[in-house]
Specification:
By secondary structure, the chain is mostly helical. Among the domains are: 4-59 and 204-246, no CATH class; 108-164, no CATH class. Helix content is 62%, strand content 6%. The protein has helices at 4-31, 35-39, 45-81, 94-102, 126-138, 151-163, 177-225, and strands at residues 229-236, 239-246. A two-stranded antiparallel ribbon has the order 1-2. It starts with a helix and ends with a strand. 22% of the residues are buried.
Length: 249
């Protein structure tokens, strides 16, 4: 004899087990795209798996190309453009190399070897363009300097000191136009490879999510089609009665 309480516990246990099985395939596909589909003997799992392998190989190749290009343009910067200014190789942020791409020379940081700071005044150099921007920002007339002790002049000097390239990072592509052209091409191709590699990461994530959602929908449809109706026997008023119970997932 099975009491109604025992029958309820059996139904709850069956529902919990079915609910757990419902999530096995989606989780498997989230970890390895296509795994949940292949578990259910669905051929489309091979498509997710092949997509994962292709996109992952593209990401690895693009990352390799990007790092190789980065090493190359850094080598050019140090061996050619910075060779005459420093013997110690020091790396810095990517924006520094972008600036080297746009300006053939950094210019001097301080034109006066004595006390005080005299900024670079050649506008074709990077430091000269920084000093011009500082003057345009803080002076009434960028070509008419205020007194050196005035707040306007000091603010312009502070701006220049914060944004200009110091002696340790000076560069010049003078007499090295071919190397400068190679530097520009390499930095652009490396940056492009980095961006494309990041887009591959987005495709990888999308493949995982789509495969998991596909497996979840398939699991729910399969559970609905195979949902059993169980017969439970109970006693009502001394009479044995069979109650048909449908287990919901």
């Amino acid at each position: 004899m099975v009491t109604s309480g025992a029958a309820g516990q059996a139904i709850d246990s069956t529902a919990a087990s079915a609910h757990a099985r419902l999530w096995v395939r989606p989780v498997a596909s989230l970890v390895v795209p296509g795994a949940g589909q292949l578990w259910a003997k669905q051929d489309r799992g091979l498509i997710y798996l092949a997509t994962e392998a292709f996109v992952l190989s593209r990401y690895i190749q693009l990352s390799h190309d990007a790092h190789r290009g980065a090493s190359r343009y850094r080598d050019l910067a140090f061996d050619v453009a910075r060779r005459g200014f420093t013997t110690v190789r020091r790396d810095t942020v990517f924006e520094y190399y972008e600036t080297m791409e746009r300006f053939a020379t950094s210019g001097e940081f301080d034109l006066d070897p004595g006390p005080g700071l005299e900024p670079e005044d050649d506008r074709t150099t990077f430091n000269g363009s920084v000093w011009l921007l500082a003057r345009r920002t803080y002076w009434v007339d960028p070509d008419t300097p205020p007194p050196p002790t005035s707040p306007e002049y000091q603010l312009a000097l502070q701006f220049y000191s914060s944004h200009a390239v110091g002696p340790d990072f000076r560069w010049s592509w003078d007499n090295a136009s071919l190397e400068h052209q190679e530097f520009r091409a390499t930095i652009r191709s490396s940056d492009d490879a980095f961006r494309r590699a990041q887009s591959q990461l987005g495709l990888l994530l999308a493949n995982h999510l789509v495969s998991a959602i596909d497996a979840l929908i398939s699991s729910r449809l399969t559970a609905t089609l195979r949902r059993p109706a169980s017969m439970q026997t109970t006693w009502l008023g001394g009479r044995r009665t069979q109650v048909r119970v449908r287990v919901e997932f």
